[in-house]
Structures are given as structure tokens and as C-alpha cells.
């Protein structure tokens, strides 16, 4: 019982000490709020533009057009994300937006003394503002962050366009190569036939 009274006394004294220092806590809270407001006002604003892409995950090689199993689908979606985030995709964005023609960009590239080409340097910079996510659905969400809202929207759209162009090219290029090969074979056969006749 004697120790309990001593504990209560110490707790009471502690609360009195806190009450006496209330102005210190209030000052720290006020200074923190003011600092947060100042930092918020001084930091440049960042805008985000988002594009949603619906990806067809059907197996085009299958006659029935069946859906892949969940494991294959996850791998397929990750491949699509990798295509969007590739340097090739970013180079197409740089070309589409004509960023290499910007005098300020050329000056910054030269000032940085970067190795490689201006296009590769710009493509690497473009990838830094890109974020790509996919959920359990067949939708890929592509978000681009920039200090200028128009640039953010243009970049998001350019990445979406680059992805669509690349996937179309990946699907049609083998067919074009096969058609070219068959054309060469037909020309050879026609030439052989003329020489026989």
C-alpha cells in the first residue's frame, strides 16, 4: 500500500509536469504544421494521366480460341507489362512525341555528358515517369506522372500507342516473313518452270 501511494504521487507529478510544458508541445505541433504547409506549397505539383488497356488473353494459335489457364495468363500479362516498360517502347514514345527535336532536351543531354544516344537518354527518362499495374482482370493500367498535365496525358497515350504498335508488329511479322519466303519460293518455281519449257 505504501508503494502504491508513492506511484500515484509520481503519476500526479508527471501529469502536472506535462501540463506545465503544454506550450512546448503546442509550439512543436504548430511548427510541424507550418513546415508541412510550406513544403507543400514549394514542392512542384505532379500530375498523373492514366490509360487503361484491355488485353486479349485468348490463345490465338488454338482453333477454338480457348482461354489460357491461370498460370499461363499471369505469365502472359507480365509479358505485356514488360513490353510496355521496355526501352524499345520508350524509344517509340520519344520518336512519336518528337522529344529528340527539343533544344532544351539536347542541351540537358550534353550538359549531363551522358553516354549513348540522345534517344536512349530520353527513353530512360521517359520510363522513370511510367507506372504499369495489372489486376486479376485483363486490364493493364498505365499511369504517367509529370509536372505538366498535358505532357503527362501525351506520354500516357504515346506509351499506349507504342504498346499497341509493338504487339501488332509481334503478331504480324512472322506472317509477313512467311509470305515473303513463299513469294521467293514461287518465283524460284516459276523461273525453273520457264527454263524447262
Computed Rg: 31 Å
Uncertain runs: none
Q: Tally the helices.
A: 7
| Proportion of residues in helical segments | 55-70%
Structural class designation: mainly alpha
SSE ordering: HHEHHHHEEH
How far do the termini sit from each other? 124 Å
Give the overall shape, derived from the CA principal axes. Answer: elongated
- Strand order across the biggest sheet? 1-3-2
Mean pLDDT: 81
Description:
- This protein is mostly helical.
- The protein is built from seven helices and three strands.
- A three-stranded antiparallel beta sheet has the order 1-3-2.
- Strand 2 and strand 3 form a beta hairpin.
- Helix 4 packs across helix 6 and helix 4 crosses helix 7.
- The radius of gyration is 31 Å and the shape is elongated.
Annotate the secondary structure layout.
Layout: H1 2-20, H2 22-42, E1 47-54, H3 70-84, H4 87-96, H5 103-112, H6 118-128, E2 130-134, E3 139-146, H7 149-196
Labels describing this entry:
single chain; 197 residues; mainly alpha; 3-stranded antiparallel β-sheet; 7 helices; 3 strands; 68% helix
